[in-house]
Amino acid sequence: IRRSSPAFFEQLVVELLASMGYGGSRAEAARAVGQTGDEGIDGIIDEDRLGLDSIYIQAKRWSDNPVRRTDIQQFVGALQGKRARKGVFITTSRFTDDAKQYVMNIDVKVVLIDGNRLAQLMIDHDVGVSTVARYDLKKIDSDYFYETSD
Q1: Which of helix, strand or coil describes residue 88?
Q2: What is the pLDDT of residue 36?
Q3: Label partner for 91 (CA 20 to 30 A): which of 73, 115, 130, 137?
Q4: Quick one: which H or E segment has residue 13?
Q5: Would you tell me how many other CB atoms lie within 10 Å of the CB of residue 98?
Q6: Secondary structure (DSSP) of 35-81
């Protein structure tokens, strides 16, 4: 992911959120908008199928640098510029403790997803992975064989 283009990463993030159940169909509910002059917003996804609320996305494809409080503050400022109350900040890196503390003390709801959590969410929601084999493990259902006497 870190070697991919910023546009690919932004699209991956939008696709992940769509696969997690946000919005309606991917075509109409999820949009990658990141580009020069994007005002700090890389994507927008409808929170539900009706589009009653939108979630704004910031995606940072960083390797060594952690996301700092000032980065989160800039994103929150971008959210306020859109009159938005919800955002997701996703990075391939990590967040500083100061950044994590900051989001706990603000009115705007911002969810932080670091590189490790991003990888786990991609696995859990089948984004960028494919299933090679599945195994079902069965056990006897003892309740099925339990007879009650009348």
Answers
A1: strand
A2: 47
A3: 130
A4: helix 6-19
A5: 12
A6: STT-TT--EEEESSTT--SEEEEEEE--SSSPBPHHHHHHHHHHHHH
Tens of pLDDT, residue by residue over 8-59, are: 998 899 889 888 988 665 455 555 565 545 567 888 888 877 777 889 999 9
Give the position of tokens 């079902």.
136
Residue with tokens 């089948």: 126
The two structure tokens encoding residue 44: 């927008």
| DSSP state, residue 94 | -
Residue 41 token pair: 């917003």
CA 89 to mean position of chain CA atoms: 8
Residues 111, 135: Cα–Cα separation, whole Å: 34
Can you tell me the distance from the alpha carbon of 32 to that of 42, in angstroms, rounded to the nearest whole number? 6
